[in-house]
Design brief:
Elements (H helix, E strand, L loop, with lengths): L6 H8 L8 E6 L15 H14 L8 E6 L10 E5 L3 E4 L3 H14 L15
Parallel strand pairs: 1-2
Antiparallel strand pairs: 1-3, 3-4
Helix pairs in contact: 2-3
C-alpha cells in the first residue's frame, strides 16, 4: 500500500471531518422520583415525538440534515422543559407544540435562532 504525499492528500488528512448531522436536537425527558420538578412532568416525551414527526415530514431527517434525540437530565432543570440544538449549543425552553413547530421551522430548517424561547445563560439546575 502506498501513501500519497500530494498537497491535496495532506489537506484532506488535516481538514476537520464534516459533521454526520447538520443539526442535532436533544430533548431532556428526565423524570425525577424525589419530588423535584423535571422535564418529564411537562410532556417532554410528547414534545420530542412531535419534533421527530415534524422533522421527518419536512424532509429534514437523516445524515447531513437533522437528528432528533431524547436525553437524560441536561442539568438545566430550572428552565425546564428544555431542548438543546448542536452544533450551535442553543438552549430552548418550550411550552407547547407551537413552540416546537417554531423551533423546527426557524432553527432546524432555516438556521434562525428563536430568540423568545432561549434559556438565559445563568439559568441552570
Amino acid at each position: 500500500m502506498t501513501h500519497s504525499t500530494s498537497p491535496e492528500a495532506a489537506t484532506a488528512t488535516v481538514a476537520p471531518a464534516a459533521s454526520y448531522f447538520q443539526r442535532h436536537i436533544f430533548f431532556c425527558t428526565n423524570e425525577r422520583t424525589n419530588g423535584q420538578t423535571s422535564c418529564a412532568q411537562f410532556d417532554a416525551q410528547g414534545a420530542f415525538e412531535h419534533c421527530k414527526v415534524l422533522v421527518k415530514t419536512a424532509g429534514l431527517a437523516g445524515p447531513g440534515q437533522v437528528r432528533v434525540n431524547k436525553a437524560g437530565c441536561l442539568d438545566r432543570c430550572a428552565a425546564g422543559p428544555v431542548a438543546v440544538v448542536y452544533p450551535e449549543a442553543v438552549w430552548y425552553s418550550y411550552v407547547d407544540k407551537a413552540d416546537i413547530e417554531e423551533i423546527v421551522e426557524s432553527h432546524l430548517k432555516h438556521g434562525q435562532v428563536v430568540e423568545r424561547l432561549l434559556v438565559p445563560p445563568d439559568v441552570g439546575h
